[in-house]
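Hi U.,

Before I forget, here's the chain from the pilot set. I'm dumping it here mostly so it's searchable later in email.
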Amino acid sequence: MNKTCAVILAAGEGTRMKSSKPKVMAELLFKPMIDWAADAAKEGGAEDICIVKGYQAQILEEHLAGKYKTVEQAQRLGTGHAVMQAADFIKEHIDGDVLVLCGDAPLMDSKTISNAYACHKQSGNGVTVISARVAEPFGYGRIERDENGSLKAIIEEKEADENQKKIDEVNSGAYWFNSELLLKALKTLSENHTDSKKEYYLTDTVEIIRSSGAGAGAFTAENPDVVRGANDRFQLYELNEIARKNILFSLMKSGVSIPCVDGVIISPDAQISADTEILPGTIIKGKTQIGSGCVIGPNSLIDSSVVENGVELNNVQLYSSVVKSGSHIGPFVRIRPDCVVGENVRIGNFVELKNARVGDKTSISHLSYVGDAEFGKNINVGCGCATVNFNGRDKNKTIVGDNAFIGCSTYLVAPVEIGENAYTAAGSVITEDVPDNALAIARSRQVIKDEWVSKVRPYRWQKKEDKND
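Structure:
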């Protein structure tokens, strides 16, 4: 497609959401509705996008971070008025076509958009409405067709008679327009507006274009859910359930095993390869990538991370990090951002990593903290170890060489470096570098005091035992 653009309406407050954020910032599977709409527009063929902001516009601007052009609708005077704010943007694409989408209808998909555009161009229409047939059309504008099946009118619920209310084909609120004809229609809409009308309706531009002699059509989407929006939290929940099941079903068709869907929520932007198994209670967020042959869960949270082939994550929280092939992690492990876990690593229960690099075949089995550190290959870290990386002012780095052995309850006080093949004795507090092949012992010498118990007051249990004797 050439010379296409999109205007996305995102100015609404959404009072029934009871939120301090713009309505379109409400999330569907952890992704704001505005991002669903923008991604669908891009994937559906729109080359340039303009977003009409309004309520709490600064929040939306910060989220978009300059990714798209924005215009502001200071007064919310209807959908037609919202599109008027983007008139200059549409003029920049005067020789092409413009897609208009509702930012709070996140289930409008790219396939529907591209198919509707193909119909729009093939029919030579000035406007093509995207419609759908639904089981319960109440509240939607009805698509009325003439005897030839062409679009005759869009009848709003309050204006429909009894026969028109029986029509099950409804307006989705999404349109393809010829840019030049839309601009002319918006000008006519403005000129014909009276004080008695409180809002400008975009649906009126369809009639204006149709009356001018240009073609007006309706493309019926295969998926009836494209018309669904969210006006309150319950409707948002319903959309989440629809989207969640769609994604899980799609993953299963591609070869991902999900034996029980209870509590499984997966981002639409996540990529999971075949032969991976997702267990109950697992949440996968952001643009996470998971390889094949993995077992993820139960009760794991993976956020914006890369997990290579053959990895097991059992009760793991993994944030913005990389886990390489063959590693087994968990249960009850937290991996904070900017970590890289090497191949065939073993990380056991109650371990936390933060800004750490862990080399291949290293084992950190239990009850340990590794932060701001580089651990090499084939290292064994005993129980209860920690890198002491913060001195109250600065974060300092710990480096441990290949094949080192870190004894139980060792504290590595950074900045410090442990050489290759080096050992630290259990219970040591290491404050100085340890050379290659050396053993470091940093603890007080054990002292034995003979007959100590007889010289101090006996414990209660000892006294009680004596009485029983």
